[in-house]
Amino acid sequence: xxxxxxxxxxxxxxxxxxxxxxxxxxxxxxxxxxxxxxxxxxxxxxxxxxxxxxxxxxxxxxxxxxxxxxxxxxxxxxxxxxxxxxxxxxxxxxxxxxxxxxxxxxxxxxxxxxxxxxxxxxxxxxxxxxxxxxxxxxxxxx
Length: 142
Known about the structure:
Blueprint: H1 3-10, E1 16-17, H2 23-33, E2 37-42, E3 45-51, H3 52-62, H4 71-74, H5 88-98, E4 102-107, E5 110-116, H6 117-141
Parallel strand pairs: 1-2
Antiparallel strand pairs: 2-3, 4-5
Helix pairs in contact: 5-6
């Protein structure tokens, strides 16, 4: 199974924020949309990501004043991406190694979507179930 299969199932919509959006606005978006991160886009280019972890770090460092800061001040700027042709195993390894839960899907500089660890686990479970069902059918047919 590939990242493109996940995007075909879940869609390509990505939640984003402008670099000048306040942390309070980003937190509201995360809460309202029930997501764990938003991409920070400038001129349709990914320049960062703000995750729940980034919000927690900002609150720990700045207290309530963090809510008035701009997204660009707290975002993670070293954004790791994946390709739609990457396998689920490759993406799981990347997420585990980097200790993050969201990967933008990019090809030739174009943002195609975003996959989360939840998307990857769901896809892997589906893949495992299909394999198990195929093995059972093979055994019964023998």
